[in-house]
Amino acid sequence: MIGASLFIVFILMMLAGVPIGVSMGLSAALAIGLANPDTQWFGLLAVPQNFYAGLGKYPLLAIPMFVLVGIIFNRSGVALRLVRFAVSIFGQGPGMLPLVAIAVALLLGGISGSGPATAAAVGSVMIVAMTRAGYPPAFSASVIGAASAIDILIPPSIALIIYSVLVPGASVPAMFAAGMVPGILVGLALIIPSVLLARKHRMGLQEAALSKPLFWPSLREASWGLAAPVLILGGMRLGWFTPTEAAVVAVFYGLFVGMVIHRTIAVRDLFGILRDAGELSAVILIVVALAGIFAYSLSTLGIIDPITEAIVNSGLGQYGVLFLLILLLVFVGMFLDGISIFLIFVPILMPIALFYQWDLVWFGVLLTLMVAVGQFTPPLAVNLMVSCRIAQVSMEQTVRWVSWLLFSVLCVLLLVIVFPQLVLWLPQTLGY
């Protein structure tokens, strides 16, 4: 009954519009208090202890730094320069601008690690260009919303950092390496239907009339943005710094590019940048801390074990269980962001992964891919919501286009399930 009350109160509070972190924290505190009626106040002492324990983890220091990096690069005009460089490579013609949008989103994933931030940065540049070239705004919003979902896989991904904190057997470098190949595969899976749809429906016919940037000047302008992922990932691989230290290095690199090289960030802009990064980081970290209380209540109330036993004894087998998890996480991915999903479901799903002896790094990437699908699945999807707002279209208008993109990414999800080495090959090769 107490376990049921925990989930009932949690769901009711979310439906009432209470922020998800507050819903988790209050419902968990209520359950802890009900579980110890005789020593209620003594039992509630676990709430502040677990709140602090949820934040007192070294890898979490990387989160506010990578959030700051994303904001700095968005403000410095890196996205526009990457777009011009990509256009100079791929040329112009039907289907080329969607390809450019996906390629730029893939590159920005190695800088910001935030899907909504990438949707805003790429969408503000590409949707205007695609509309001018003759692409329907709903199609442009679909491509940008789907492409920005790749960022949850491409390092530095905040969701992968959260997963590594929750699962001791999966280090941050291993998760970063494991997300690379699936992230590239998802990018290719989005490019193919985007280009085919554009050519089939004769979109972008005015694209060839647009001026094409010269290759070498655009490469020179984009080189500082292109070097950012190399610096972050290469520095970690060479042992120059840890993932947390890499985030700090990336901040100073971004400030150098924005203030000295491009000169798009002035000293007076720093307060606004730090304020925005502080607000977003505080929201993320408070949710992480409150989720620690939620996870503690799940374990102390003995809720996880019955759920695990019911699933593993259902007779579905490991592939049947995986299918149910795909349906569940894609569904909740329509409503919640990746970090919140990990904080809620990883403590529940980890015993299942251990029972079937699934590789924890592979399982983490699989969960991340499921969440990525949910983030651009109508009727509610975080990334698609951002791109629709920029394109000034309703989400219902994107269904005819985004359904093809969803099918392609689900094919990648199937490949990752059937061939786990697509995930494990790179981290094993790098020795993580």
Name the overall outline. Answer: globular
Number of strands: 0
Helix segment tally: 21
List the uncertain runs.
none
Describe the main β-sheet briefly.
Answer: none
Strand content: under 5%
Helical content band: over 70%
Give the class from helix and strand content and strand pairing.
mainly alpha
Number of domains: 1
Q: Radius of gyration over alpha carbons? A: 22 Å
Spell the H/E element sequence.
HHHHHHHHHHHHHHHHHHHHH
Determine the N-to-C terminus distance. 43 Å
Question: Average pLDDT, to the nearest integer?
Answer: 84
Membrane topology: Multi-pass membrane protein
Transmembrane segments: 55-73, 85-111, 117-135, 142-166, 172-198, 246-265, 277-299, 319-348, 360-381, 401-426
Organism: Desulfofustis glycolicus DSM 9705
Keywords: Cell inner membrane, Cell membrane, Membrane, Transmembrane, Transmembrane helix
